[in-house]
Every structure is written in structure tokens, then in C-alpha cells.
Specification:
The chain is mainly α. The chain is built from four helices and no strands.
């Protein structure tokens, strides 16, 4: 007998839906930016790869948070950390002089803080199984 394991979900709140829309919009913007750089040929391949990773993880995270899936907070956290690392890494990838990189560090830090807030909120909303759930019926 094959047992199908379904991911648990909850009804997402309005705030979770707003988080999902913002994450999806930012991911799509990064995807557009990467496509433009690829089309025009002015971005290094690693930058294009970074845009692609942020796009994919952002769409997956937005979907999971929108649906209220139990792995949504983890996907959101992964996307936020990848986005922050990508932003900070733009300095060396684009040969930005060290004195011009402070804004990248600030941007990366803001992304980490916003991600932490979104992770905290969405994590609180995920239903965790309790000992009662495991009692025989």
C-alpha cells in the first residue's frame, strides 16, 4: 500500500497574502532585470545566474506563502538570504570600488531584517502537530 503524504496548510491571512505578492513582484522584477542583462549582454554570467536564483526561489516562496503551506516560511527565509547574499556580492561581481559598496551592505542588511520579520510572522501561522494529534482514535 502506498501512503500519500500531503503537506499541511492553513488558511493564509491577508498579511501573508501581501507578503506573497511582494515576494513575487520582487522576484519577477529580478527576473526581468536578469533577462535584460542577458539580452543586452552587459551583465556577467554570474550576475545573470544570481537573478535567476532569486527569481526561482522567490516564485516558489510566494506560492508556498500564498497557499499557506507548512514549508512556506522556510522557502521565504531561503529566498531572503539568497537575495541578500546576491545584493552584497554585486560589488565584487561588477567591480564596484570598495568605497561604493556600503549601499550594497545596507541593502543586504535591510533584506535580512525584512525577511526575518516575514519569516517570524509566517512561522507563527503554521500549524504544528501536537501530542494530541498522535493519539489513537
Amino acid at each position: 500500500m502506498i501512503k500519500v503524504v500531503r503537506h499541511s496548510a492553513h488558511k493564509p491571512s491577508v498579511i501573508e497574502r501581501v507578503i506573497a505578492v511582494l515576494v513575487a513582484a520582487i522576484a519577477l522584477q529580478q527576473g526581468y532585470q536578469g533577462a535584460e542583462g542577458l539580452r543586452e549582454g552587459h551583465d556577467p554570467r554570474l550576475v545573470t545566474l544570481g537573478y535567476t536564483m532569486v527569481l526561482i526561489t522567490g516564485i516558489v516562496a510566494a506560492y508556498a506563502v500564498w497557499r499557506g503551506l507548512d514549508w512556506g516560511p522556510g522557502a521565504l527565509g531561503l529566498n531572503g538570504l539568497m537575495t541578500a547574499v546576491f545584493v552584497v556580492s554585486l560589488g565584487p561581481l561588477l567591480d564596484i570600488p570598495p568605497e561604493g559598496r556600503s549601499g550594497l551592505w545596507i541593502g543586504g542588511g535591510v533584506i535580512v531584517l525584512l525577511t526575518a520579520a516575514g519569516f517570524w510572522y509566517t512561522q507563527r501561522r503554521v500549524r504544528r502537530p501536537s501530542a494530541v494529534d498522535h493519539l489513537p482514535s
